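Lab notebook: predicted structure, single chain.

Context: the supervisor wants predicted structures on file for every construct in the current expression panel, including those that have not yet been purified. This is the next one on the list. No modifications to the sequence; it matches the entry in the shared construct table.
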Amino acid sequence: HLPVMNRLMILLNTFFLFAFSFSQTEVSSIRFGSGGGFTGSETVYSIDQSGQIFNIHETLDGKNNTFLKFVGKKTAKPFFQQAKELQDYHYNSPADTYSFIEFRGAESFNKIAWGDSAKVDARVLSMYNNLMALIN
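Prediction complete. Output recorded below exactly as produced.
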């Protein structure tokens, strides 16, 4: 039999290994918006797990995040649950004008972009529309 201290160390190592691997695949922020058209620019919003929503502007100096509103964890949580479900869904078919959702994690990134909403998964459209409703 292993001494109690060894069993405790194995248990703790297993827990931290699981926690670390889980955090590597977890979505930490969701970006969404639209782009294209004559100027080719994008309108980008971001929501984090705490429920903070930002407008992200690309500038010559880099990115500039403008705080828009706080919707809270309770409102944000369902979006992150949906993001986990859609994290492995891939669709990249932007047209002249397009909409997009990006799922970002510590070591993961997935951008779903579409120009014709009839072809993208209905769950993506629903999520996008619900996210945009938070902005308006």
